[in-house]
């Protein structure tokens, strides 16, 4: 017994994630003024000793049926005993949007207040302009109103959407919104009266401006040791609100955190925090802030899903608690207006779709960029790059992108090349291009002080400024640096000119925007002081979480100007916000070669996928440290399913390009990378689906089976888009079997096509020796592959296609394939091939949903194999009648009795034209 305990203790200690990150640099809630103040507020209100101070002025309500908008004034009214009653008027707008969404904003009129001259005195209201897609018209739905509903006549205003799906009650006496979907109460906004808008006041009158539930803490100065210099020119100005999800006990989203997929309660811990910071070797299972922020939360249960999008880019904390009847959430942001969009729907995918309609669908990347990426800090010179390139070929391992980290620059000056190491980058790029390969170079927004690029930025006042109106200087990789301000036209234009000059005359050079939180070694919490000033006279405080987006979007737009229609720019960004999915890919930042980081990468990627930003991966096999052989294999097996598939290593780590691995390991890794390449048609179709309706590419189980309660807590396995491929990576050292959750139905082992009949949904133990990875194809699906080894994705363009058909017990299956040139923007004009293949009643039929303009797209992809999996019950047909156009042929089908499938070899079909195969 004692030995067992001892063992358990050792085991626990051993499992503890190495907390290498110096998290004392980052504020806890107890060190953050507005977090302390709003949690205090919530406590006071919770005690019930103070009355709510926010109400709606009934006479101010204006209903514009013409432009489908409600406006009103929210009043904050209280007295402190000293002096007259305080009354603050806060303009409210309320919209029912098309597609069962609701938006409301609450602003504060601050025209009368004076900050320093350099600052814009109004609350920042441009977050939506950055986050919402410029391509989606902001469209409102028609509604009907009724002002009086007995017996509550005159206590609220009711709006009903003409669609009949959505209704809203705006309560006057104490501001509250009740949101109904299909007559069921889904949300109450301000359910717990945690609405708090810290209105503008003078420092001397601060005490008099506190309503009874408010408190004072770090209001006009910051007591945290690393941000004592914050000038806080407006004093306290936070906004907060609570949202109750009724009868929904699972909430997700608000990336980025290294935590479980389903959000945890924060009752006994700090709230989740959204604040873009550089967190090298971050803590696991923590709500601490990370590199990116998407203030979007999804709630879901069988039959009902709902989303909250908190359109605010300031430092934000979110408290979560679960109760038997739902989830309660409390959102607090340091500055800005209160701007919220609520989404309602039946399925979780409806919410992701509505959210990505508003903020933009994920960009369809080039086919090449969903191949394998080989990165390291650093490939030292041109010879090193070309050696890696040729060694990969020698080892017959496909790859598409090689990467250059920081050291390629001349003394860490971005937009330059180190002359001794990279004397002729254009020539190197040409060599890579011959095999269809691409190069990514690091370009960060910090610019070393004192060279032509930073001089030009400083002279045109396109840098971020200090609170004293000087160019801000801080420390980063090059030493003393300044930061480009891509919030204003001036900064965007000059940044664009540098990017354009840098990629000019190249075809295959792409950009990695790193350190764009921004990471500032000398700054508070490793980032920018909150009182820095951006274009428009807005403080960093109000828009911090947008900075990374502003940089990568400027980079992307500059590249599209160079490449035009001929290429889709690839940009990797470390910092992100809602809307980043339109122009960039991202990854989970600086992880470690440790099992815990492999395990956490799955819920982290899943969370981004449900929050509309699916093009994400994690550094394989851990950025810092040296992975064991076992970890390398397991990480490649998991990582090949990340939408962004990149290996990366720290400068101090041993070299670990796959061709360096010992034979057995190399063989397994080669197979894994080749499996990714053979599935590129399926991956690319998943990317296409994401670009059309936001469908996650790494898809949580509850998206595929929202009808099953058990799926809502599973975050160690997932589906690949709509393909029906179910993956359960092994993420524990020494494990050679693993529990896999299956819904009811037929599943086929991906590699053998042996069928597994599941009668009761649940976890089942499966074998998973090191060389194997548990992957299943769910009955009912058809997937597409290209099985030949080529050196890069581009070289696979004309390769023949293999179909794998996995029928249900009823003999039904469905699959689709999207195909285009993989490279240009011509697909936007309709130049793509889309086919849908169905199996029913022993007939496999392919229909062309969209024919490309380019002839070769419809004629060059032959089908070389149709593989049909057989369940134990299925009877084997004896002949297949194959028809395409006006030619019909017939094949006899024979089968080894031990086999789990049959194959039609070279059926003589072309993917791009309608065909059918009848089994008799
Ligand atoms: C509604 O439309 C009218 C006329 O187009 C316009 O004058 C008014 O300002 C609009 N109201 C709002 C709240 O947008
Ligand atoms: C900030 O500095 C610039 C350049 O020196 C100057 O033109 C501008 O007037 C200053 N703005 C304020 C508000 O001091
Ligand atoms: C932001 O507020 C200003 C001042 O109230 C207003 O003129 C402007 O239209 C607002 N911008 C947006 C995007 O709502
Ligand atoms: C939004 O709904 C209105 C009708 O309420 C309709 O006229 C309009 O076309 C819709 N817009 C979109 C983008 O669906
Ligand atoms: C096949 O049918 C098409 C019309 O559907 C016809 O134009 C074509 O000539 C036929 N080809 C042959 C080889 O019979």
Automatic annotation (TrEMBL):
The keyword RNA-binding does not apply. Keywords: Endoplasmic reticulum, Glycoprotein, Glycosidase, Hydrolase, Signal. It is found in: Endoplasmic reticulum. One of its GO terms (biological process) is carbohydrate metabolic process. GO terms for cellular component: glucosidase II complex. Belongs to the glycosyl hydrolase 31 family. This is Glucosidase II subunit alpha. Residues 362-686 form the Glycoside hydrolase family 31 TIM barrel domain. Residues 1-20 form the signal peptide. GO terms for molecular function: alpha-glucosidase activity; carbohydrate binding. Residues 91-319 form the Glycoside hydrolase family 31 N-terminal domain.
